[in-house]
Amino acid sequence: YPRRQAPETQLRDFNLTEVEAMLRSYTKVLFVRDPFHRLISTFMQGMGSSPSFSSFVQDVLDSGQRNASVAWKPLVSLCQPCFIHYDFIVVFGFFRQELGHLLQRVGLPVNSLLLEFTDSHVRWTYSWLSEQMFNELSLQQKQQLSHFYQWDLAAFPLSSSFLSD
């Protein structure tokens, strides 16, 4: 979109007419990851100051959605999928397959641009790790997390998430 492009310009800096014109002119891609996996990743990277996963989750729940860090805030509140029509939604764990399809759809050469993604290789590890960490949580924490991420679970194809139960 040609008007007012600068690295620091954000979508909110434009009026509604300009935003609508911009959104129509772009191919919009949303990358989605299971919210429980996002929590595990954030915890493992040491972004929380809690000594255990259970206490980290409690800190997340206590912070509420308004004060949540971008690292664990529900994606629906960050990406606005109800207002922005995304052309593609790419789910973590299937990047290689989905990006090949995406590149083909937008007319780019598929084989020369695809890197070796490890996301499909870590699915098994995350499955095991998710089960271990999920079992650390109390029933109340599990229910509160499911409620915290209810809109993400409803909006995206995350049926295999531990939070879907």
UniProtKB/TrEMBL annotation:
Among InterPro entries, the record links this protein to: Carb_sulfotrans_8-10, Sulfotransferase
Keyword check for Transferase, yes or no.
Answer: yes
Give the subcellular location. Golgi apparatus membrane
- Which EC numbers characterise this protein's activity in its record? 2.8.2.-
Q: Which GO terms describe its biological process?
A: carbohydrate biosynthetic process; dermatan sulfate proteoglycan metabolic process
Question: Do the record's keywords include Transmembrane?
Answer: yes
| Topology within the bilayer | Single-pass type II membrane protein
Q: Name one GO cellular component term.
A: Golgi membrane
Q: Which UniProt keywords apply?
A: Carbohydrate metabolism, Glycoprotein, Golgi apparatus, Membrane, Signal-anchor, Transferase, Transmembrane, Transmembrane helix
Per UniProt, the enzyme's principal EC class comes to: transferase
* A single MF term (Gene Ontology): sulfotransferase activity
Of which family is this protein a member? Belongs to the sulfotransferase 2 family.
What is the name of the protein in this document? Carbohydrate sulfotransferase
Q: What is the lineage of its organism?
A: Eukaryota, Metazoa, Chordata, Craniata, Vertebrata
Gene name of the encoded protein: Chst9_1
